[in-house]
Amino acid sequence: MGFQVVARELDRIVVVDVVGRLTLNDSRTQLRDLVHVFTGNGRKKFLINLAGVDFVDSDGLGELTRCYSIVRQVGGEMKLVNVHQKVRALLELTRLINLFEIHSEERAAVQAF
């Protein structure tokens, strides 16, 4: 299965379910493009569900960071949920763990907005 992003709305929050490898070759700019579309339509609250992602490379980290920047530029918030341990370890190693608010359950993440 290739890389997929699917957006759904929950309590005025855009929940983006990501499946596949978040890498240069696999994901390209699909996640960023989706965030651009929703921010362009006035959405400001994003929850990125990484339950289906077990591998992220440096380009994938860059995509997450760029998405975060796009959302912040419009005065919004972006949180991560269901982050696999390998991905979390990479976020810790690169110190990006301090940039993202991470939750283990979708319900708790939605309530945190």
Structural class: alpha/beta
Give the strand tally. 5
Strand content: 25-35%
Largest sheet report = 5 strands, mixed
Round the mean pLDDT to the nearest integer and report it: 93
Reading side by side through the largest sheet, how are the strands ordered? Answer: 1-2-3-4-5
Q: What is the helix/strand order?
A: EEHHEHEHEH
Please tally the helical runs, counting DSSP H or I stretches of 4 or more residues. Answer: 5
Judging from the principal axes of the Cα atoms, what is the shape?
A: globular
Residue share in helix: 40-55%
User: So what's the oligomer here?
Assistant: single chain
**Would you identify the regions where 5 or more consecutive residues have pLDDT less than 50?**
none
